[in-house]
Amino acid sequence: MNQQDYLGLSTQEPQRVISFPASQSLHASAASPSGAISTGIPQLDEAIRPPSAEDVLGRTRDINSNGIPCGHVTEVYGPPGAGKTSLALSVATSALRNGDKVIWIDTGSPLPKVRLASMLKKSPDATSSDLPEDPIKNLIYFHARSLPHLLALLIRPPKGFPPEDAKLLVIDSVSGLFPSYFPNPSEFKSRLPQSGITDKMQIQWLMNRKWNVTSDLGNQLVKLAATHGLAILLVNQTHTRIRGQPRATLCPVLAGGTWENSVHVRIAIFRDFLPEDEGDSKGVHFAEVMKRAGKTLSLRLDENIVPFKIETDGLRGIDKTPPPLILPQVPIETSLSASQRKRKVDEIADSQDEDSDEEFGWVEGDDAGLSDGAG
To answer: RecA family profile domain: which residues (predicted)?
Structure first.
């Protein structure tokens, strides 16, 4: 495994902006590189690829095109411990087994090298004659110490990055460095009196800069994927969102219009309730395809929800496990009196702007209300 140092990015030659006709750009985008990298779960590989015209006519589907598509950005999100990094390791294992170079960028949690080596040794294709002697040598590892390091590496990359023969780029996690640089609006507004900033335009720019940075990052990732034929896999964290939702909902930390357009495939990883009579329900995870071929899937179909288990040698799909129980939508009651409502609607924080821990705090005067009702 090669570990790169890119702290000297400021000495690189300035990049030039090269213009070319729009027709040429359209032709290049239409000729995007084909191919895919397996996730290690055949059922999930099948669910990621949309039906084609050949499938409708009854022709055989090419199994090599199932999986994480090359030339596009794939996002994996879910709560902590759901299996996001395990899925990323499984995809990296598939690429390394094929002799392809893999770039792994971590922003906090170190790369589990021992587990990756174990997955490579115990993989089903470990006895194949065309397996590289030491596949882990094709892994290029970066550690982004801060958000500026990550942005510099991706937006103003040094010479030779990414390598021409690289097939997969993994960022674990792409959202991990954002909270320390972009405080939530409540914390930001509390600092304004001390900063002395009074200009409304400047305040608005400071509040929106997170989404500007997110947009630039999303556009650059799409460019890297298209120009180098890379399969880019992003691990995105989650937060709780209340505003505009029927109930508290887990949503990706990095979001927005431009970011949404950048993501070609989105997979949600979670654990859910199973029927009580299901004997093999312990340790079952679910991967649900939420977006495919650049289109959001509005309907939750069973074929898009793939159960799997995490084992020491990789991920194992489960064939006969029923889909997770989806709780019915409960209408929100609107008949509460004003005295029963402790918080106004506009006081409920939107976790897309504020941290989840601050959304469930006590309101001033709640203790008194509880004392009155205790008698």
So the answer is: 33-238
User: Where in 261-350 does DSSP place strands (E)?
Assistant: 265-270, 284-292, 295-296, 305-311, 314-317
Token representation of residue 282: 């312990």
Which residues are 170's β-sheet partners? 104, 233
Beta bridge partners of 250: 240
Strand 2-3 relative to strand 249-252, pairing: unpaired
Question: Which top CATH class is 34-50+63-180+215-317?
Answer: alpha beta
Q: Which residues pair with 285 in a beta bridge?
A: 308
pTM across the whole model: 0.74
Q: What SS3 state is found at 155?
A: helix
List helix spans (H) across the chain. Answer: 22-30, 42-48, 53-56, 84-97, 113-121, 147-155, 185-195, 200-228, 257-262, 366-374
